[in-house]
Structures are given as structure tokens and as C-alpha cells.
Amino acid sequence: MMDWTDRHCRYLHRLLSREALLYTEMVTSPALVRGGALHLLAFNADEHPLALQLGGSDPVELAAAAELGRDAGYDEINLNCGCPSDRVQSGTFGAVLMKDAALVADCVTAMRDAVDVDVTVKCRIGVDDQDPETVLPDFLARIADAGCERVTIHARKAWLKGLSPKENRDVPPLDYDLVLRMRDRFPALHLSVNGGITSLDQAEAFLAAGLDGVMIGRSAYHDPATILCGADQRIYGTQAACLDAEQAVLAMLPYIEDHLAQGGKLAQVTRHMLGLFQGRPGARAWRRILSEGAHRKDAGPALVLEALAAVTEGARNVG
After folding, report:
1. What is an example of a Pfam family matching this protein (predicted)?
2. CB-neighbour burial class of residue 91 (10 A; exposed 0-12, middle 13-18, buried 19+)
3. pTM, to two decimals
4. Catalytically annotated residues
5. Which of 82, 114, 172, 318 is 20 to 30 A away from residue 107, measured at CA?
6. Which residues are annotated as a binding site for FMN?
7. How many CA atoms, within 13 angstroms, populate the side-chain half-sphere of residue 292?
């Protein structure tokens, strides 16, 4: 979710669910340790529980980056072994690490020795011509021996050559059964599934089948109200007062005002809000007003209220 789940996105999502664990976009350990880009660690205290997702392959550097994440206040440090982008491959991290489970284990060991918060891993079932039936259990065994207790498995291979990052999200077939078999093979691991999951119904089915967690990415981004507003009650069994889409828009206004006061741009926030009314009357007008107007220099909360009024009008016309 690089360039997607930034702090503005996460703040919105936290308004919709108090319980769901949120992840940062992937931050590379070289950017933090060598580049000093500590601004990439910024977040609002209301975002907890929150995991920092790191990209890297050098155990010493990842340990230092994990320390920076711990000091910044993150609840979990996650090592990404699943991203297939060209940038990630050239840096020898992300999905390419599926080819070197021993190195990943060394990275996990170094990070766990450095911090006292959870160190977790997100991976694929394999890459390129690897046989997932062989590669995935070996990978899980090695990182479990290194002390990793929680793993999220994207139930697809990644093809590092021949497919774009977008195609790697859709083209390789999903193998949920393999992930479920890992549940039986590694009962001590907390295993979550990721990939192709678009509803809470699917999430509940995976949990009922014995998995410990479900990660929903793009569907939660494109249709956040549908996915997140029901999650607290249906998945976590809490009665937390979750905001609906309209309430979330109003709750975002003070955040937007503060962001603008600090020199930020409205579009930096509202680009993450475009899907709030997905599938509802007025959704198209909502998206149009924000997309066309949020880049103006004078754009502010008034534009958001104008877009919200269009949603209300759309619903009234249908009714």
C-alpha cells in the first residue's frame, strides 16, 4: 500500500474502526537509518493500534530502524517480504526475500534483539518458479525459529519478472487452501491471510476456518465505510461507537483545519476520502467535487461540506 496508507488515510480509517490494526505504508530502513527521514514515522496518537511496516534486508540496519519505530511509539514492527515492485527488487527487499529465508530469519533475530515490541512478517507464498508447497513451510519454520510469532501471508505468488506490481495483485492465482494448511502445520504461529479479500463475510469465514487474522488492503481503501464500520462489532465483538461515513466526514473537519494551518493541502487528505460513499446515491458528485476542487489554493473545509451536501441531496432524490 505504498503511497496509499499514509497518516491522513490512517486517521480516517481509525475514525471508522477503533479496533482494527492499521499499518503504515512501507518505509525503507535505509531511508530512516542512512537518510534520516524520520518524518516518515510521524503519526497521530489516535491511530493506535498501529504497525510500522519496514522494507530492508540488512539485519543491522533493520534493527536500527526498528529501534527508531519503537522510539516513535509504534505498537508493532513488520518486515515486508511481499511487495513485488521494481524499486523493492532493486533494493533487495520485499518479495525477493522469499528467496532467502535464512536472511529473513537473521533480520527477525536482529530486530527482536533490538526492540521489545512485536516483530512480525508479511510474506507471499513464493516467487517466480518456487514451489509454494515447499518454500512456504520452510520460510515459516525459519522465521518461527528466529522468534517471529505473527505472520501475514498474501496467498499469491509474486512474479518478479514479467508481471507489473498491479498484475501481481490479480494475475497469480490465490491459494487460500495452502494458507489454511499452514495453520495446521504451525499451530503456535499467529497466522493471518491477505489477498483478494473484499468483504467482512469473507473475513468471518477465514476466522471460522481457524485463521487468527485477516488483512484487507485495497477494498478497505476504496470502500472504507463498508469494510471498517462493521468490523468492530462483527469481527471484534465490541460495541464501540463506530462513526458512519457522514459522521466521519464531519469528524475529519478539525483534522483538515489543523493540516491546512500547518501548510498542508486539502487534496493530501481528501484523496483518501473519495471512496467513503462508494455505491451510495451522491457518491459520484462527492468524488467529482473533491477531485476537481481540492487542489485549489483556497480549498478547505467548505469544499468538503459542499461535497457532503451533494451526497445528502443525492440520497433525497433517490428517496
Report:
1. Dus
2. middle
3. 0.93
4. 83
5. 172
6. 53, 122, 154, 194-196, 217-218
7. 8
